Amino acid sequence: MILQKAKYFIKESLHNLWQFKTRHVFSLTIISLSFVVLGVFLTMSNNLRFRARELSKDLTVIFYLQKTVPAGEHDLIVDQIRRSPLVGTVRSISPEEASAKFAADFPDLKAILLNLNANPFPASIEASLKDPGLPTETILQFIAEVKKNAGVEDVQFNREWADKIRSLGRLAEAVGLFLGGILVLASFFIISNVIKLNVLARKNEIEILRLVGATNTFIRIPFLFEGVLMGVAGSALSLLVVLILIKLFPLYLGSSLGALQEIVGFRYLTLAQALGLVLGGGSVGLLGGLTSLARFLRI
Amino acid sequence: MIELYHVWKQYQKPHWALSDVTLSVRKGEFCFVTGPSGSGKTTLLKTIFREVLPTEGQIIIGGKNILRIPDSKIYTVRRPMGIVFQDFRLLFHKRVFDNVSIALRVLGTPPRDMKRKTFIALRMVNLHPKIWDYPSQLSYGEQQRVAIARAIVNNPRILLADEPTGNLDPDLAHEIFGLFREINKQGTTVIICTHDKELIRRFGGRVLHLQEGKLHGKDVG
Q: Which value does ipTM take for this structure?
């Protein structure tokens, strides 16, 4: 009997959604766009956090040397770095190697390099640290020690990058939740109003159902199903849109991304996030329906 | 079965649609309510199935004061009733089958039973060949018969009909009254509002005459 009733409610809801299709397609589009915004920011946050994690795994400090550093001093610096118990491997990168790597990573910018009379890249020493879990304080202490050498001009520590990317990820998530939250709230009002219109359009039917002895629940459930269906369909559609965006965006950016393509290698939402969005859509639909029925279907 | 005690109903001052109506209809009784237009026949029926609440008075059905039943439980009053409305109240976007079976669907009747009972009810009003038509494809008289089929489909304990044969030709009206009589013989209490004195004379039963909301009762046949 429950199955039979559920079948009836779903059939009724689908029939009603179809009956006022223009209204429902319009609402579905807005609901979907709201969830797309949320989905896009969540994806951005995911990707940034993933990149930050990847960077943290391979903890590297790059020491950029002055152009005038003599070969002897260069060797001394390499030696000092190698002697540190924190360091695993050390690699010296000549200005020529750096230039060649840049040209390979950014082919579009290769011409600029050729137009320059001199190689703008300094020599550098790349030190991979043994333990990615080392406290930042200890690493900074090591950097300060090496930096005492006059030949060391600048230092790049990728944990700082990781931290920055991680913060950016958090920011994207916060912006997404804020904007998405506002838009999801708008979806709630849209669903609520659509259900209100549906209730008004089916006033006659509701009256007849009451007169033949239908319970309030029997009358209300198809409207709630409509709300839930709109929410679920809207959020599911948004997942598809986000997937298409992720697949198309790198194609749109094309080769200009160069080495960045690897860095921004787009990852889709996690299964939990995708399910969360669909569940969220359903909940927004249910709440929209409940609110509307409480206000406009007083039976 | 149905008892009304000093029922008054006023829609607009100073006119009373029902004025101190007290009556008792026994279980299994066949009853006509007559009277000129605006005499309160429809209001009387509406108070019995609680579509309108009386301004004063009490209504007891099957030992229960229906005015004390909360709105959320109103279905308990209406489920044992079959009601034929003067304006039919059909769902024009649904087929004849759905219009009739809705009375069973709300009770949670299994699909097979629902189909069988709906077909039987439609055959009783001679409308079974049009089971898959929409009400808009039917004549006025046929729409009325759909409304009658919906009222009788769940074998109600009480059948209330407001001008059920108003748009039917005399032969069909006679047939429908015969049907109501048959249903009544099975123990259903039947209350029919009608103007048709010829049918009342032919079928007999208790006649309640309403005049300006006041009740004058007499037995015929």
A: 0.87
